[in-house]
Amino acid sequence: MTSVTIDVIGIVLQVGQVGTLKLKTGETRDKRSLVIGDDTNLSIQVTLWGETATKLDLKPGMMIACKQCKISEFSGKSLNGSSNLSDYVIGNINHARATAIQKWHSGFTDPQELVDQIGSLTEIRDIPTKPRNEIYHSILEMQETCN
After folding, report:
1. For the CA atoms of the chain, what is the radius of gyration?
2. Which residue of 52, 72, 74, 97 has the lowest C-beta tally within 10 Å?
């Protein structure tokens, strides 16, 4: 699979604990997984690496924009986030996709209801990737354009 990167905006649905991964070289690297969703009623796991795993203060319900995420086939479809802190914007994001996602998110009063009602690309297999584009993708667009 060719290394493809995309930009994506979503609402943080779940945030995992920071863990440590031991590399083949014997070095260790911090790792943290989160799940984001959007108004297409899909979610995807994003893995944060290095200082992004430890320094980004993320909580469910926050809006996040992630630039230069690599699409991975691990456990279906998932994203490997950039190790550069400047590739993330959290909170107030001035973008049309962010406005649509925030409107969608405001329709849910119970965070668990939101998590229960949306599907996950991380469980889907066989979705090819597409070349990098300078727009933010919805999670559904990522799935559709990868076919």
Report:
1. 15
2. 74
Which residues of the chain form beta strands (DSSP E)? Answer: 5-15, 19-22, 28-37, 42-49, 63-72, 78-80, 88-90, 119-120, 136-137
Provide the 3-class DSSP secondary structure of residue 85.
helix
H/E stretch holding 112: helix 111-117
Residue 53's identity, in one-letter code, is A
Domain boundaries, the chain: 5-142
The whole-number pLDDT of residue 130 equals 37
The CA distance from 1 to 77, in Å, is 13
Q: What does pTM read for this prediction?
A: 0.79
Given this structure, which CATH class describes domain 5-142? mainly beta
> pLDDT, tens digit, for every residue of 41-100?
999 999 999 999 999 999 999 999 999 999 888 667 899 999 999 999 999 898 889 999
Q: Cite the beta strand spans of 50-116 per DSSP E.
A: 63-72, 78-80, 88-90
